[in-house]
Structures are given as structure tokens and as C-alpha cells.
Design goal:
Blueprint: H1 4-7, H2 11-14, H3 17-29, E1 38-42, H4 48-56, E2 61-66, H5 69-78, E3 83-85, E4 98-103, H6 113-126, E5 127-137, H7 139-142, H8 148-153, H9 165-174, E6 178-186, H10 194-202, H11 214-224, E7 237-244
Helix pairs in contact: 3-4, 6-9, 10-11
Length: about 250
């Protein structure tokens, strides 16, 4: 897994910057009830999406939460006084204290199914009755855009999809949440070029191909043979699922 403290300085630049953040925030807000007044943005990272969530809905107070110290430092610069450093599996908020909770690009990073279940459970705990939990699902699948890069990487070792939509729905149901909608948005600026894919390989983006592993270099060599080394392939399209806590 990437070291997100080290990743913080270049995180936004490598992931589509403001255009991607705008698309993500708009899609999340489309699933949040109009009357919501308190939102927690879990795993807020640099706060680039969190800031847009706060600006995009008048009267909505948004608090960002992240575990990585460098990420929270960046987020706090964007949202002074509205960022908390905490583990998403043990949120430092009282029960029923939020009208909406979001976790964008988090569940796929968690190491075990129990960690995912714990995060979903915490998000359900802090939701007030009638509140909505919004999360990305099936992130890895979103990056498979049918490109020549995907064809090269198709045979790579795979890890379990912790954010599989059916699993997340099951965990949500265990904590009393019911399906409440879905949306999709384009990860603008995230379409990889072959050269970018090689760089991502070598910095540990693909967790089953660690930096320095001979297999990693074999895939890197094949990617380096593709044409148009600096031409980005299509952007991924991410999926959001919403779950409501019954009143």
C-alpha cells in the first residue's frame, strides 16, 4: 500500500486535481438529502473534495477526518478548524451526530473484510436517523477501461476487492442501513498513459506488485513497449452507493 504521508505532497496533482474533485463532490451531494446540516467526510485526504462538499451546499457543515498526518495538514489548510485526525474504524464522534457521512476512495484500501465492516459500522453509528452514508464501491474495476494498458496488466496477481458493492451492501444491512441510491462520476485527469502506469507500478500503486519485485519490472518492460507512451487512456468512471438509516 502507498504511504499516504509521503503521498500527500503530490496526491492532488497525480489524481486529477480540481476537475476530479468537482466531479466527486457533485456526485456525492446528489445523494445527500437537502435538509442535511452536518456531514463527516471520512478519509478526506488533502481536503480537496471536502472543501467542495462544504461550498456546494449552503448550510451544510462538513468535518474532514483522516488518519495520515500529512494529509490532515493539507486538509486543515483548506478547511481551518474543520479537520480531525482519527482512525475511521474508531470515529471520535457521538452516536447520531451526523446527517450524512461519506467515504470516497477508502474501503478498497482497508486490509481486511473486518476492517471494512468496522468502518461501515462506525459510519452507521454516527448517522442520525434519516441520515445517509455515501461511499465509493468497486474502485479497482473502475480503472479497467479496456485499454492496451489494461490488456498488459490483465494477468497480474489480484487482491480481494474489499469494496465489492455486494459486500458493502451486506455490511450496511448488518448495521441497519438500507439502499438509498447510486451515482457515477468520471475521474477526470486520471486516465493513465503507459509511462505513468510504469511510474505507478514502481512506486507501489499495485499492492500485489511491490516495488523492486522482478514481476513488477517484467510488467513495466511490457508497458514500455506500448505506443503513444505519453497519451492518457480513458478516465475511470467511479460508482457511489448511498445507504439510509431509517428514521
Amino acid at each position: 500500500m502507498l504511504d499516504y504521508d509521503k503521498e500527500a505532497e503530490r496526491y492532488d496533482a497525480l489524481r486529477g486535481g480540481e476537475p476530479r474533485a468537482a466531479a466527486a463532490a457533485a456526485a456525492v451531494l446528489s445523494l445527500v438529502p437537502p435538509g442535511a446540516r452536518r456531514m463527516l467526510d471520512i478519509a478526506c485526504g488533502t481536503g480537496i473534495v471536502t472543501r467542495r462538499l462544504a461550498a456546494g451546499r449552503p448550510g451544510l457543515a462538513v468535518t474532514g477526518v483522516d488518519l495520515a498526518q500529512a494529509m490532515t495538514r493539507h486538509a486543515a489548510a483548506r478547511l481551518p478548524g474543520a479537520v480531525v485526525r482519527a482512525d475511521s474504524r474508531r470515529l471520535p464522534f457521538t452516536a447520531a451526530s451526523a446527517d450524512a457521512v461519506t467515504s470516497v476512495w477508502l474501503l478498497h484500501l482497508l486490509p481486511t473484510a473486518e476492517d471494512v465492516r468496522a468502518v461501515v459500522g462506525e459510519c452507521a453509528r454516527v448517522l442520525a436517523p434519516g441520515g445517509v452514508y455515501v461511499t465509493t464501491v468497486d474502485k479497482a474495476a473502475a480503472h479497467n477501461v479496456g485499454s492496451d494498458i489494461d490488456a498488459v496488466l490483465a494477468s497480474r496477481p489480484r487482491s480481494a476487492a474489499r469494496d465489492d458493492a455486494a459486500l458493502v451492501e451486506t455490511y450496511a444491512a448488518e448495521h441497519g442501513l438500507v439502499p438509498a441510491g447510486r451515482s457515477r462520476f468520471t475521474g477526470r485527469g486520471q486516465g493513465r498513459s503507459p509511462r505513468r502506469a510504469v511510474a505507478d507500478l514502481r512506486r507501489g500503486w499495485f499492492v500485489t506488485l511491490p516495488p523492486g519485485d522482478p514481476r513488477t519490472e517484467r510488467y513495466a518492460a511490457r508497458l514500455a513497449e506500448l505506443p503513444d507512451q505519453d497519451r492518457p487512456r480513458p478516465d475511470p468512471v467511479f460508482t457511489l452507493r448511498a445507504f439510509r438509516k431509517p428514521a
